[in-house]
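PROTEIN DESIGN WORKSHEET
SECTION A - STRUCTURE
LENGTH: 254
TOKENS:
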């Protein structure tokens, strides 16, 4: 049972990096590719149908970690508390930008929120790299470390490239060239590599510090039956909003 839950946790964390990675990547590219308000509208419109579905993966990651690895919860919150708070603020800032950017029609208003989307995306991307470094050192070293910052830059670049590929897949006019779905899968797997590398190194620790078998059995009965619903919802989102499905018509969030 411990191996099953470790595999599920790995899939959820890798899935979050692969899916939310292109959302953050598009946010990172707003100042680069969004030279006009119309282009920025189209970039946000491209990710709009996917954002909430992708964020569900992070909720699932947190729930699995707290339930299956209760000791890890305390170590993460204690060892990375300032970073976790900063990342939560970045998440709020990014999502606020997505929702508020079109609530008023003024150009300054929209530029302000577009800048916050880019800033929040950068903040989150670098924060994830630093968090992975902190976890890799067993929370014994501060994530504000040259190696942690370097890993943050690497994660940011991977997300940006993934976002660029996503735009080429869903809205090719924004990048100048179309990208096939297999390319998007490849960049998604690449974006997930830092998380998978951490899990590979921590596999022994996580298996040894899993919740008791009785707890895992209860979690399995409560959680696993809903897994097909989550997968089915993801499939529906991707089939419904595949390339050509109003990527250029819908201006933004409503």
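SECTION B - SEQUENCE
RESIDUE ASSIGNMENT:
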């Amino acid at each position: 049972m411990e191996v099953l839950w470790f595999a599920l946790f790995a899939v959820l964390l890798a899935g979050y990096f692969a899916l939310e990675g292109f959302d953050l990547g598009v946010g990172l590219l707003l100042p680069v590719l969004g030279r006009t308000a119309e282009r920025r509208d189209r970039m946000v419109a491209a990710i709009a149908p996917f954002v909430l579905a992708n964020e569900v993966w992070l909720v699932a990651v947190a729930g699995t970690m707290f339930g299956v690895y209760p000791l890890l919860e305390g170590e993460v919150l204690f060892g990375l508390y300032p970073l976790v708070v900063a990342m939560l603020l970045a998440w709020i800032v990014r999502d606020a930008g997505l929702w508020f950017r079109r609530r008023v029609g003024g150009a300054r208003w929209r530029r302000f929120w577009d800048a916050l989307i880019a800033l929040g995306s950068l903040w989150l991307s670098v924060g994830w790299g630093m968090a992975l470094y902190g976890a890799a050192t067993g929370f014994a070293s501060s994530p504000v470390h040259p190696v942690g910052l370097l890993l943050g830059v690497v994660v940011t670049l991977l997300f940006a490239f993934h976002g660029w590929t996503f735009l080429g897949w869903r809205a090719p006019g924004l990048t100048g060239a179309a990208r096939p779905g297999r390319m998007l899968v490849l960049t998604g797997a690449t974006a997930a590599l830092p998380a998978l590398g951490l899990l590979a190194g921590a596999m022994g620790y996580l298996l040894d510090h899993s919740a008791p078998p009785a707890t895992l059995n209860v979690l399995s009965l409560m959680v696993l039956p809903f897994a097909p619903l989550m997968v089915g919802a993801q499939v529906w989102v991707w089939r419904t909003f595949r390339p050509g499905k109003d990527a250029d018509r819908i201006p933004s969030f409503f």
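SECTION C - NOTES
Residues 124 and 186 are 22 Å apart (CA to CA).
Residues 2-240 form one domain.
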